[in-house]
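Data availability (excerpt). The following record was deposited with the supplementary files.
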Amino acid sequence: MTAKETVLGILGKDRKLTPVDPGQFSKMSKSGMTFNISAYDTADKNGGSYRVSFIDMKAMLGLMKMETVIITSDDRDVPLFSFDVIKAMGKNTVLAEGYDTLVGDAPAELLEEGRKIKASYENLPDYAREARWYDAILLYFSLAKTGKEVKDIAEGIVSDYTGLFRQWLAAAPEVSPEEKKAATGEYVSRLLSEGGASTDQFKKLFGEEKTDGLFRFLFNV
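Predicted structure:
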């Protein structure tokens, strides 16, 4: 299954998710790269509302593919979750990350649950990420793995971390939408001003204004 199918299959067990129209961002193409954008919001606020966004990228006549998943909570104190599944020239890489966009403190028991998930994949080769400003808010249960073994278990990694998001959402305290949007918005603003791997690529291809609009749609800020 694709990362999108995996995530929607898991999250759809609990809640009805309603598609959100990306408008001008639904399909973006340039320099041989095509990005298909989709997003879903929870249909009701019972149990916490959130947006899950997807980027499906293809390049080099399909020899390079990348799926990105972004999950942002609207009214529960949950970290920002982001997954990337990359296939390029026979090489497979998966990143499953949580960012500290919390209003309060992270519950120790959920951090420990995340650590256990990460530990279950410790035998896989690490992917060397370029150092970035957001490393300072990258929660320690995040992982980045690469190698031929990743191809067969990328779906399992995405599934496990989506499950962690579900656990966090169920246990997290309610916060005001204004507080939560401000915390997520600060992260997005810094991405746009200080850069990031994907951010830099989008700005190079489509310019700052369109990238700003796209990211604010994806992260729901």
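Summary of structural features: The helical segments are 3-11, 108-119, 150-171, 177-194, 197-206, 208-218.
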